[in-house]
Amino acid sequence: MRKKSGRIPRLVAKPLTPAQLQRMVVGPRMHLHLLLNGIYEHEYAASIGGLFNVATALAHFKGHAELQAVFDGAQEILVGLMRETRAPDDAEREPLREAFNLADQWIGIQDTAILTRAINYANKEIAAQRKAKADSD
User: Fold this and answer.
1) How many CB atoms are closer than 10 A to CB 18?
2) How high is the pLDDT of residue 10?
3) Which residue among 3, 34, 49, 108 is least crowded, i.e. fewest CB within 10 A of its CB?
4) What confidence tens digit (pLDDT) does each residue in 49-59 have?
5) Rounded to whole angstroms, what are the CA distances from 32 to 9, 69, 93, 117?
6) How many angstroms from the chain centroid is the CA of residue 108?
């Protein structure tokens, strides 16, 4: 009988499947297209913002401050659009498009473990902000 090893097996990084990436990015990409073409809906902006939340958390976990700054800048534009309930103007369109494309690429190259961690972190932060807002009202 063999002695049981005390070694813990190392988890292997598992990338997203094309179907998983499509489910995660296609909806927000369609919403971005509509938003950039002048059709504003709060749900569209929130969907795009959710993708930026995950991309920002990933950049934070991986220590990429420059990517975090790009995604934060895009989120600031989105928050402004949501406050004013309007579609982006010419100066806002290109930064949103570039940040979204970067987020799409960034999310696509991550393994599922770090991506799951980023999604959970983003959800936890959103829940904490909603609770703080509800407590202050």
Assistant:
1) 9
2) 61
3) 3
4) 999 999 999 99
5) 42, 20, 10, 25
6) 11
Query: Residue 38's Cα: distance from chain center in Å?
Result: 22
Position 95: which residue type? P
User: pLDDT value at position 49?
Assistant: 94
- The amino acid that residue 86 corresponds to is R
Q: Is 36 exposed, middle or buried (0-12, 13-18, 19+ CB in 10 A)?
A: middle
The set of residues, in sequence order, having a beta carbon less than 8 Å from that of 114 and lying 6+ positions away, is: 58, 61, 62
pLDDT at site 13? 66
pTM listed for this prediction: 0.83
Give me the residue label for tokens 């930026």.
Answer: 52
The partner residues of 111 in beta bridges, in order of sequence, read 15
Dihedral sign, Cα of residue 85, residue 72, residue 53, residue 94:
positive
Contact (CB, 8 A) for 47 and 34: no
Number of CB atoms found within 10 A of residue 93's CB: 17
Q: Which of 95, 94, 105, 35 lies closest to 64 in space, CA to CA?
A: 105
For residues 122 and 28, what is the distance between their CA atoms, to the nearest angstrom?
Answer: 16
DSSP string, 83-114: HHT----HHHHHHHHHHHHHHHHHHHTSBHHH
